[in-house]
Predict the structure.
Amino acid sequence: MLLLADIGNTTTVFGLDNGRDIEAVWRLPSSRIETEDELFVILDGLLRSRGSSLSEVTGLCVASVVPRLNGSVNYFARKYLSKPAVFVKADEFISVGLNTDNPTEIGADRLANVIGARECYGANAIVIDVGTAITIDILKDGIFAGGAILPGPATAMSSLFSHTAKLPEVELFFEDHYFGTNTEDNLRIGIVNGTYFALQGIIGNIIKEFEEKPRIIGTGGDVYMFIDEGGFIEIDDPILTLKGLRSYYNRVKLVEKNTAD
């Protein structure tokens, strides 16, 4: 079995791939994986709850945007899996082209997203990943062509709360009206509805750069705020990043095998 880890600023998503499907997904606060032994206790318990064990795990593939946690994750892999973790990066194992100014600056999660999109949805797609930040990733003719980054809804809420004296933190969801008559509604319309229409405008302009309409895929822990019937997000794929991780890992191992042969 292959262990997959999407390490974000706020949340880390683990997946367990059995060679056919990603059969289990777990979401944890990233603050809980500060050391290799903490990670062992957590993952050992999660695997045992499914009747499995770490001894069955053959590898670990990681997309991380939190550099300070990379050492702990790699120590865990070496100590408890007896092999180093495979970290996604812009290298020869990437299965899509990279048409950006500085490919080494592309976040590992964004690389995994476009790899997953290429494998599952074809050569032309736009991926919207909603978390601490919102990333828009453009896959055009099988090439990562760039995108955009916005603050995530929770980040925008936290920033307003921490920089104002009276604005409260509120539950975030899309409001079904265009102006609010109380502070909570005002905040939700500004943060969630405002971001929805910003995304809609950005996506609409990006689509104009394609000869044929690309697939629009949503993923990430907070993408549900922007999914509605008839909206601009066509496909909700909560494990797209994990699918990209699996594809990257398989490509690495295939190249290693061919080189050894």
Notes: The radius of gyration is 19 Å.
